[in-house]
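Morning, I've got a small favour to ask if you have a moment. Here's the protein in full, and shout if anything looks odd to you:
***
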Amino acid sequence: GALIRKMHSVETLGCANVICSDKTGTLTENRMTVKELVVDGEHLLVGNGGFLLEGRPVRMESHPVGEKLLRIAVLCNNARTKAGEKGWEVAGDATDAAPLLMAAGAGVTQESLRAFQRRGEIPFSSVRKRMAVRVADRVGREQLLVKGAPDVVLARCSHRLTAQGIVDLSEEQRREILEHNGEMADRALRVLGFAYREASSSREDEESGLVFVGLAGMYDPPRKEAAEAVRKCRRAGIRTVMITGDHKRTAVAIAKQVGVFRMGDACYTGQELDKMDDAAFAKAVQKSSVFARVNPEHKLRIVRELKKQGNVVAMTGDGVNDAPAVKEADIGVAMGQGGTDVTKEAASI
């Protein structure tokens, strides 16, 4: 069932002893669902269009902080929803789609928020790790809405939203929020942080002094065939390595589920790799089965180092950020159905 773009890659694939893989959309289904929220210190479970707090249903219109998170989730978003025969249908990136569907289950939709007009956008990137939009209400009051990696968003917050209003964000509360983030990551959830502030023309592009609103944890199930594929590779003497932009604890949790990460393996983040000299980097590449919070440059450097160490390297991926490493590998493999055109062009299979 594979489409071969370069015939010699079939022979090379028979010699491969390392397969590097992106996580989202390759080892997982890229079909995300919001499972948990943390707002105003409360932990809410999400499911079947409803929200539960300690087993009791919660109506978001009576939970001001939760409702604010839903509004940011809808407005700071480039996916689109429409009502279909089988419920809500979404077009767009899975990370955008999941918060939209969650909000729609509570009646917060793009249609219900049409009074807010977008005035500008600072797009998400693997370097920024966040997205921001400026919106204006009917009387012209503007807000900057931000969502992204919780640690990145939180670092730009000076206040937090509570049921009583906006209060200062203490260092102890920062630690609690990051601990919630870590706990959700340990349950294999990809976590987004949400924040906002009143905007003014003099601070148009300044994403600082934000008001922290909450966290949303999304689950992206591993592909059913992924664990068996990893087992087959191990039996054949092929090492598998996960390289992802996700949080370290989320990456390790998923890697354990599919068999990539085992007792004694190491995991390094892009930030940790940046601090290493060439010798330390080479050693890290030798012993690590997971690399997390990496950008496209890190992926490329890892593949190059593996090749330098005498390995025959295959790299699989689907996103634009995978393309440089897919092109550099001895065998580049693009995911066919969900893969981007640029990655398919870079791939040999």
User: Anything to note?
Assistant: The radius of gyration is 21 Å. The chain is about 30% helix and 30% strand. Residues 143 and 198 are 4 Å apart (CA to CA). The first strand starts at residue 18 and ends at 21.
